[in-house]
Amino acid sequence: MAQPDRFESVRRYVSVVVGPFKTVYRRVGNSRLASWLLYTGERPLVTFALLCGVFVTFLGLALLRPVDMQQLLSDTNTLQTLFSALLSGAILIVSVVSSISSIVLSQEITDIETEQSRIDASIEFRKRAESLAEVEGSPGQPAAFLEVILYSIYRETRALQRATEACDDEQFREQVDALGEEIVDEARAAAETLDGARFGTFNVLSAGLHYDYSWQLNTARRFRNRYEDEISEETADALQALIDTLKFFATGREYFQSLYYKREVARLSSNLLVVSLPVIVFISYLLLALDANIIPIFPIGPLSSLPVFIMLAYTVSLAPYVVLTAYVIRVAAITLRTLAAGPFLVRQPEHDDIVELEVDIDPDSWEEQAEADVDGRDDGSGEHEGERDRDAAGDPGDAEGDRPAAED
Known about the structure:
- By secondary structure, the chain is an all-alpha fold.
- The chain has 16 helices and two strands.
- A two-stranded antiparallel sheet has the order 1-2.
């Protein structure tokens, strides 16, 4: 017992030490600045803000210890080695990102049959959305198109609630009402986010970030599986229509998310090429200037011009890496927030289960459960076993009936 107690003491100590840091991390992660950096901010502005942060950090260190910074940035050989590495890295990162972009965009270069199948699939998808929403035509903009699907989800939810009013099972009615209110509230919030949004902006994906269709789909399927023998045909049809509409929304959201990723990769490639060429030329000139020792030195407040120029040059040299960082952190953050696999919940659900799942199989009781299942089959399947025995031994009647055919 001493070993588990020791581990428990260590766990408690770690939780006490790490707890405050987790609280600070959650507050920072939910702040407006973090939301702007990860989601809503334009990537060029985020890049500029990050570069300014780097320069201000170095400038603050230089003002705190000006003598040390002067000595540190006066070693020409070290600076040449540093900027040579940055030059090589800038060229390499442009090559890698350009190659990735070429691979992604090469998927758009296909034969005419593939293009025709894509167009046909897109038209069929829009026809289904129009039939669900009972409208003459669906909008061409992704945001407005998702609004149409959300309206369809709202209509199907209200239809399900009306269908369950005549149900005798009070628990089922309460559970359906609870699910319906959750769906209606989230659908309204997502539609308000999408209203007037332009594709390529974060608002289109923001609707998907906060709309938990996986939980709704799971709950609706549990209703169908548990109450399908007890509810009326009208209620069953309304429940199935809601499930189909939720699946349709999931398909549309994931498709538009993939289109957004392709657009982000294209933007990353173009912006990185625009930034990298001036940076490569600037670093090349800086290396020549350091080798020739032609950088003018004059006082700038408590500092001299050399450390200020080197800090500015280092900040500019980081521009390709910061551009890549600004785009990758948003793609990664969106992927983590929208990560879903149909009816599977791959994130911690924000809702309590309305219908509890009655599946509780302890690995320690697998053998007992298997024996109980075997006993149950033995008790209720005697007739089937008798039929299997007759089949194995051969039914005399069948054998006699088969002999004339064999002789013929």
